[in-house]
Each structure stands twice: as structure tokens, then as C-alpha cells.
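Example: trypsin.
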Amino acid sequence: IFGGETKSVEDYPYLVNIRRGGTFRCGGALISPSCVLTAAHCLEGRPDRVRDLSVHALQQCLNDAPAPEHVRWAWYAKVSPDYAPRRGLDADVAVIRLSRPFDISGKASLAKIDYNELPRHMNLTIMGWGMTEENTQDWNQCLQVAEIQKLPQGECIRRIGTPQHPVTGNMFCAIGENATDACPGDSGGPAMSDGRAIAGLVSWGYGCGRGYPGIYTRLSSPRISFWLKYFVADHCWG
Ligand code: 4AZ
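Written out as C-alpha cells, the predicted fold is:
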């Protein structure tokens, strides 16, 4: 996160980090005791090979020894059928089913998905362990949180200039004051529309903190919300 501040992870008890072979990769959010919502590109096109992915809840800093009750392994994952990595990460969303549910009677808890179309300049909260500036060598080790504002699609495209990839209806753009932005490593993490509802997922952009809006997966898009509602009902509860 560029332009954010340090916050206590206990205030974001649905937030997880996703690791492959123990190495930090992405953010994500708990949407049921046994499911994590993240970006499809976090699975690197291998949704059939997720057994080496682990999910860590309530970790303030990436080097903190995780409590065993806050770590789970992936069992299987499903990527949106509309995911198109060659078309600028269209429909960049996936659900990871865990091998064992988290105990949500403790400190870990769930976020809802906000399927409503967002107001034009809505405030959103982004969070993660990604870089705090573009060309730094190492990940930020500890959780950062920032406020950003959604931009109307037309204004977003004007600000980007000529986007390398189309900004589709499965995406929205957002940026904060003083270029506050998500950075590499924040991918898959939630953009919250209120304290407990996920409106978007960090997906892509042109660097971070350069003044270009970041691009988020739009969970309210009809195709994404239709798929997600059915998948979550079928696979995440019971
Ligand atoms: C990335 O590479 C990435 N500024 C994530 C977010 C943004 C840019 C790049 C948005 O994961």
C-alpha cells in the first residue's frame, strides 16, 4: 500500500495473507469459515494445484510466527469462468476452499460481499502487506491500510490515458488523495465499502503511487456476482 498507515490486524479480522510454499504472495478475505476470496491471478493460472497454498489470518507482520489456529491449507480453488488474463485480467476473482474451517468464534471473523453497484465517488478502504513504494526491494512486512475513492469509468480511462488493457465492466478504478494506491503484493486483498463488506479486489494498475488509478475487480458486475453467489452457496457453507 502506497500512502497508507500501520493499523492493527485485529481491526481487520477477515483479512488473510496467502502463501505458496510458505512465501507470501497475495491478500485475501474470509467470506465463510472455509472459504477465502482473492484475485484469480494470485493462483497463477493453476487453480488445480493449490495444495501448497496456505492462508494466514490475523498476522500483523509477515515474519510474525503464526498461531496454528490462524493457519489453514487450501483444498481446492475455483477461478471465475470469465477470467481472462490475456485481456488485462478481466474478471480477476477466485475462491479458495480450505481443508479445514477457521474457528470464527475467536478473533478471526468474516466479511460480507457487497453486490450493490457503488456510488460514483464512494470511499473504500484497502489493506495489505504489499510494497509501500514502487521500486523497493522488499515487501512491507507489516499491515498497511489506506482510504481511496472510486472513480467513474470514463474519468478513470481519461486519467490512465491509453490503457494497455481495456478497463472492462468487470473492473472499477479507484485512487486516494496524494496518489494513495495499492501496490504489488496487495493483489487479491479486499477494497471494503463499509466496515464489513467487500466491494472489490486489488487487481492491477500502472505501477503504484504514480497518480494512476488502481484497477479493482468489480464484485457487483452481473457476471461476477451471479457466478460468485452460486459458487459460495454451493461450496462455502456446509
Ligand atoms: C501488482 O502488480 C499491482 N496500483 C497491484 C496493484 C496495482 C498495481 C500493480 C495498482 O500486483
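The radius of gyration is 16 Å.
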